[in-house]
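Z., the sequence and structure:
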Amino acid sequence: MAGGGGRQRSPPGPLLGMVAVMVAGLVRAVSKEEQHSIDLIDKNYVYGDTKHEVNVYVKVFTNSPFLVCMDLARSQEEVIDPTYLWIGPDGKNLAGQMYVNLTETGKLMVMGFKESMSGAYTCTLSHKIIETTTQEEREMVEAYKFMVYAYREADHAYRVFVRFTTKECELVANGQFFEELKKILNNIISDLTCHIVESSYKCHSVKIPKQGLLHELFVSFQVNPFAPGWEEVCHQVPYDCEDATNMRAQEARDRIGEFFSQQTYALKHEFRTVPTIHYVDNSFSVTHIDSCRPGFGKNEITHKNCASCCVVCDPGTYSPNNGVTCQICTRPRVKKYGARSC
């Protein structure tokens, strides 16, 4: 796993005493308006549709599936003297471009897909129909449009909630305890290039059945995989490091969960006198949080068949941070995909 270093041990004892369709695991494709999209896909091939544009989602740095310059029905028929004209998002003929694989049968693959390659890919199929009785030839022209979008998997972070019993809310040691807790947790996950962020605590009086009134610290923090040095770790991973980043975040979450489990064990088996501030058994809980890289965002309406994906921001929108929303430019000067600013 990226991150390096051996796993550190937790300190002993308590603290302080398209229907969405996946192609080859990388590409999702769906007809924009109709729900027959599953029929458009045959392994690594995505077929066109003369009535509707077809949306295709390609994971960054991978190759797109082959975009087929005909619909599924046409592909099952004899086609006489076919010619194909593929035009990319920049309006240029794609024939001869180094980043595409264009076959003689009109299939197009875009290689090493980047966010800047997103946009409309159109193909014009010209072919002949010959009347069997008169041998009369008619020229037929059909147009197909594919909207191809780069996407990334969401980055994972985790919001943790945990509680500790304390003697009283005004106790000076409460703040000291909280700072020490953050240091210990950061130490546990530092070799994973993860850290604790957005941490806070509040003290509340809690009426416990059959126990009277207690005082508890309600602690919350976020386990974030982007501690200083994470970019250097990513450089060790070919192409994109999102999978390794998510694995690091999950490992950090598991280590922290194990740490609090050890608190319960220690309180029951290692201490004769319960510390003034101690962990509340079974109070540990985790909430999953998604984030997207700058230039990407989620939109369940526009990209409902790739709703869990971080899809490249459309022209006229941008995402400057690790949120999940592509914001609309007030001055729509942005004409490219994946903008990070207006």
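Residues 18 and 304 are 8 Å apart (CA to CA). Residues 1-26, 30-42 have pLDDT under 50 and may be disordered.

Let me know what you think.
H.
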